[in-house]
Amino acid sequence: MAKAECTPKWNTLALRNRKTCPTPEKSFQTTFTPVSKDKNSQTAGHLAGGDTQSSNGPSGQFLARESIESPSKVLLMLVAGLSFSTRLYKITEPPHVCWDETHFGKMGSYYINRTFFFDVHPPLGKMLIGLAGYMSGYDGTFPFIKPGDKYENQNYWGMRGFCATLGSFLPIFAYLIVLELSNSCTAAIIAATLLIFDTGCITISQYILLDPILMFFIMAAVLSMVKFNQQRYRSFSASWWLWLVLTGINLAGALGVKFVGLFVIILVGLNTIWDLWRLLGDMSLSLVDIAKHFLARAFALILLPLILYVTIFAVHFVVLNKSGPGDGFFSSAFQSRLIGNNLHNASMPEYLAFGSTVTIKNLRIAGGYLHSHWHLYPEGVGARQQQVTAYLHKDYNNLWVVHRQQDNNSQSGNPDLVRHGDIVRLEHKETTRNLHSHLHEAPLTKKHFQVTGYGINGTGDANDLWQVEVCGGQKGDPVKVLRSKVRFLHRATGCALYSSGKTLPKWGWEQIEVTCSPYLKETPSSQWNIEDHINPKLPNISLSVLKPNFLEILLESHIVMFRGNSGLKPKDNEMNSKPWHWPINYQGLRFSGVNATEYRVYLLGNPVVWWINLASLGLYLTMVAVASIATQRGFSLGQQRIEHSLVLVRGGGLLMLGWLLHYAPFFTMGRILYFHHYFPAMLFSSMLTGLTLDILFRSADLLLHPPYSYWFQRAGQLLLLFSILYSFYLFHPLSYGMTGPLAHEPGSAMADLKWMDSWEF
Amino acid sequence: GWEMLQLPLVVTAQVDLLLVLVSLLAFWTRLSHLSYPNAVVFDEVYYGQFVSLYMKRVFFIDDSGPPLGHMILAFGAYLGGFDGNFVWNRIGAEYPSTVNVWSLRLLPALCGALCVPLGYLLTLELKFSHLSALGAAVLLLLENSLIVQSRFMLLESVLIFFVLLAFFSYLRFHNAPSSSWSRYNWLILSGVSCGAAVGVKYMGLFSYLLLLVVASLHTWKLIGDKTISHMNVCVQSVHRVLCLVVVPVLLYVFWFYVHLSFLNRSGPHDQLMSSAFQASLQGGLSRITRGQPLEVAYGSQVTLRSSVSQPIPCWLHSHKVNYPIRYDNGRGSSHQQQVTCYPFKDVNNWWIIKDPGRQQLVVDTPPRPVRHGDVIQLVHGMTSRFLNSHDVAAPMSPHTQEVSGYIDFNVSMPAQNLWRVDISNREAESEVWKTILSEVRLIHVNTSAVLKLSGVSLPDWGFRQLEVVADKLFKAHSSSLEWTVEEHRYGTSQEQKEREAELHSPTHIDVDRKISFWAKFVELQWKMLTVKQEESEHKYSSSPLEWITMETNIAYWLHSSTNAQIHLIGNPVSWGVANLSLLAYQLLAVVYLLRRRRGLKDVPDGVWDQFVCLGCVCVGGWLVNFVPFLLMDKTLFLYHYLPALCYLYLLSPALLEHAHTHLLRYAHQLQHVTHQRALCVGALAVLLSIFLTYRTFCPLTYGSPELSAHQLQGLKWRDTWDILYRRR
């Protein structure tokens, strides 16, 4: 009931509010209050009358839109102008590789060169960077080896300019979103100003990074969603469909750049569920109508993004068809697709034979090759014998020789094939130790046994014997290279050779643990395949590996990406940024330069902006609490107050939810975190600030009488604007570059600006 | 009064026989043969060491949980006259006859037994029938894993007891008529139980937060009730906040108060704490530092301890060995005397504070104290070298400056041995440099770099001691920059030989020093939350998703010669029932919600409220006690699932009752009766099978009788369970 009543109020009030926007509120109050009251009583009689509402809403909005069109357009142009000029200013400075440009620039080049690589993020962002580089005449030859490398004559401005352009849209989107949510130009302008003059947002937009692209899609998705929400009274109209589909497209874009895009998908998802819940409660709609609504959303927000996302990967795999640095992360079948890989049109003996030299790959996705090296397990970790691990890269130490239990080397003629049930001894080619296991705990997986390299020149003991078992095979079946799934069962203890997927500590060179599992269930972790197979005594046969289909490739690359992501653990001595550092702007990131002599760029938010944001979060919670307790307790509030509390609860609630969704999950993440992970959340926080402060200023009449309250409101706005501009003037060298002494030394241009000891500029 | 006496003296008592019965059974299952096995079982080896330390009143830190749990176990030990003289070093070690095993295990077992009647009462407070309550009690009673966990010196049963008590008493409060004042007793009891639950294990926090959410929802409803006056709403809300927030917080602090006032002797974990903290403990550091002069003066002889205890606590140190001219990687050094950080007490840890303007190394009378901002020199006591730093890359951290004991090689490398004293806690303490209390940074005057412990160990040429550097770019609040004076005395010897003798002599003069309880509390709490122990996988650790289907078990004890053994294995049938009811509730809730939204009320509002409340407490309880583990990076065990499981056992019978009374209503009248009968028969059959499985697994629960290898094989219901067979 209450909900139905609120909606029309919202509209009529919106109308009044929009008109007040360019001019002082007072003069309009008298004219419009009776109108809104009238409409209220009118619509209250039509609680179930969806028609009345829907005809009311758009026409009211239409009228309102006319009246604010001109000033808001001017403001929008102003926002756009400032935004582009702050972000494109000094875009080519510094003319060397900054921070993560070394990764993303390199990956852009890979796309231009069509070389296959592995990265933990989905491909869209890097594809766009590559495309921007290609369009602007960059030829993909710059190696991007490490930060600080001079670009010389390379056309890097195109890639930077592309990112900066997308970054310039953020304040514009923020302006439009807040305008939609609060119907107040002031709120929108505050939000946009905060973002335009934030040094952090400027810095992060100016380099070849994924973040501006990601944030572009996130904000575009939120904007489309908010616009779509406004279309609720013209279901299935063209503009309704437009914004719905745009939301879906942007969601796919956000997820296609980084998995952080998932958070905005959750935001849109929650909003949609809320919307559907509202529709379900609308008894004027039949179940068929609701089903239509549901299907439309399912199509545009689930199916469409999914198709687009998959398409992005399809393009990725089609473009990258040459072997490159990322091959080893993927299965044998996957590698056979890549031109230049040794498995591409491979030619080797078809069946595994005794005396062959082989590499053995675990079937778990990103399971690695069976590997050993001249290092022992350290003291206290099982027996002090040679390490056996799984390694993701191709390496000589991955080679093993297959021997019989008792080797008589005087074999002539064709070597015997290894068959299901045969006992073998696997000798590590480089170190001549045998693959060995015994009843010691494995280093990490304590339920399993340790696997070591033991013996010398092939002489070991009974614990070196393994029984070959072809999965799904029978006794006597030969082992097909590349295609058979093989298990190695330890003769003495009956356990199966297993790759646990856990990363060994430093002593194990951060390779993957290999154990012997007493649990004999067949899982990919305990299954292996023979990848390279060298036996000069056998004829090489051209083998066509079963080419994986697209869905398998997609699944595999995702699992590899997730593994990679969670594998990014903080190193022991490395300073790790903690999520609670971020909103207080505790510590930035060095983009370029460390010493006094270098050209330094430091990613750090404008402290005034960030601390205003932080304070506003608290303020927002207080204001919402007061407003909702007053409502719940049934205090009679004026029209204007009710309107304000609605904006706070709905518009503010959405932004608050966005902030939480883009911030809170980082507290649970085990992977290494950086300051720049906060920027999507910071966008939401700034928008919330705009909305909150605007309502705070407008509520000045709670304490002050009309003329003073109006002056107070203006004074507050001016003060806010001035402090943001002045702090930007102070801190702009952070983004546009500093040289000379560091801030804590005398004579520095930034001398008194090191407000926190933790800042490093 | 006279009339009163004329009335007959009558005692009217209503005894719920069912409740009495289940309680008796609970005590019987949990308490019988409690002292068998007479050996250390599983984590007793872990908690036992703390119990021993309690008995000896020796300070310790345990990052696994707040102190109440340990205190309860220690209280049990105290009742049995345990003197703390037992070495808890391995699982399976026999207890000597001097240790009263029964009393060690009594309190957890009592708590475990009381969970059963509490489950019964809680179901009643959720407004379900006695039959449902009986069902919940039976599920809890016949759960093998709960029995195992209760019967040993472990804390889960205590935690579950307090959690159930908190919910029971809160609901009792909520259900009581709002006019009665006595209901606030229940609210206070609820707050106390919450404080106790969080005090036993941090895991209690999950249930506490859930209770707060439920209470806030109820309060929110109260605020919306316009029939009650503003004043009344205010008073009631304040009461709730007091009882459910303030009381638990105060209690939590109180546990630490008791903990810290009990444990006043120094012990194995001293080194993790600050010097001030250590000085407050008897023995250990306080024995050394008792009676030291408080204010550091020019001429003072001091040892400087790094404030950071990672990787290990250590003292600023130098010795008569120089940095190698070239390091292994080819970089050069100044070849001056090494300055390191050394984790052991040593005479080479002594430094003398010198006024740069004067020559003498003795303290004036009266002593001239060093203040914040003063510039000093530090002279190494045994070698008389000045602490020096210069623009030479440090051995292991080349981005920082080397720190050395200055030797003049005449290679135009002038001495840069002035250091400014920066007392970082001067607001809290004072401007004057104080022994133990002041945290000092030494800022190199020439380069404004700060003396810092880098935490890296030097190679063999540095005797694997820790590297000390001077760093220009430092993190502001890093404690690796801060140094405290630990041992301190006023130097009196003019000559080097005398001074060396003086440095070798122990320090002692008498003054007592105390730090406040709050400072100790904050420090201890912070250390407990930040001390990182090497998290490695345990042989019996498991992942949360394995708990739902009980893919895992834990072997608690194996007899030293026979196959008798105890395992943490749940009752598989009850486990299945719990999962089933969880699923059923969620499905039912979704259907109800969607239909209500369309205006179809399947159940009357009262029943709906009851259904929602059940969900909030039971499904909510399961969620908050399970989902957080999915996000944790810790070594986890099956027993972490037990609190969540208890909530499901409360849910199952209540949901069955709901289905019985409200769902079957829709069937045709005649079918209705048959359906109800079928349901009853089904429920009975399930109960019977629960009892039978309980019986089946009893040998693994109680550790007797011993089973043959073949029988054990038969009990291995899942391939992933580890059951032990002794090879004969």
TrEMBL record, chain A:
SMART domains: MIR. PROSITE patterns: MIR. It is a multi-pass membrane protein. One of its GO terms (cellular component) is endoplasmic reticulum membrane. Residues 24-63 are annotated as: Disordered. Pfam families: MIR, PMT, PMT_4TMC. Keywords: Endoplasmic reticulum, Glycosyltransferase, Membrane, Repeat, Transferase, Transmembrane, Transmembrane helix. InterPro entries: ArnT-like_N (IPR003342), MIR_dom_sf (IPR036300), MIR_motif (IPR016093), PMT-like (IPR027005), PMT_4TMC (IPR032421). Its EC number is 2.4.1.109. It comes from the Eukaryota. One of its GO terms (biological process) is photoreceptor cell maintenance. It catalyses: a di-trans,poly-cis-dolichyl beta-D-mannosyl phosphate + L-threonyl-[protein] = 3-O-(alpha-D-mannosyl)-L-threonyl-[protein] + a di-trans,poly-cis-dolichyl phosphate + H(+); a di-trans,poly-cis-dolichyl beta-D-mannosyl phosphate + L-seryl-[protein] = 3-O-(alpha-D-mannosyl)-L-seryl-[protein] + a di-trans,poly-cis-dolichyl phosphate + H(+). It is found in: Endoplasmic reticulum membrane. Pathway: Protein modification; protein glycosylation. The chain crosses the membrane at residues 172-197, 209-228, 240-273, 294-319, 608-627, 647-666, 678-697, 718-736. Its main location: endoplasmic reticulum. GO terms for molecular function: dolichyl-phosphate-mannose-protein mannosyltransferase activity. It is an enzyme of class 2 (transferase). The keyword Transmembrane applies. Residues 349-405, 415-471, 476-533 form the MIR domain. Belongs to the glycosyltransferase 39 family. PANTHER family: DOLICHYL-PHOSPHATE-MANNOSE--PROTEIN MANNOSYLTRANSFERASE, PROTEIN O-MANNOSYL-TRANSFERASE 2. This is Protein O-mannosyl-transferase 2.
From TrEMBL, chain B:
This is Protein O-mannosyl-transferase 1. It is found in: Endoplasmic reticulum membrane. Its EC number is 2.4.1.109. InterPro entries: ArnT-like_N (IPR003342), MIR_dom_sf (IPR036300), MIR_motif (IPR016093), PMT-like (IPR027005), PMT_4TMC (IPR032421). Coiled coil: none annotated. SUPFAM superfamilies: MIR domain. One of its GO terms (cellular component) is endoplasmic reticulum membrane. The keyword Transferase applies. Belongs to the glycosyltransferase 39 family. Gene3D superfamilies: 2.80.10.50. One of its GO terms (biological process) is regulation of skeletal muscle fiber development. Pfam families: MIR, PMT, PMT_4TMC. One of its GO terms (molecular function) is dolichyl-phosphate-mannose-protein mannosyltransferase activity.
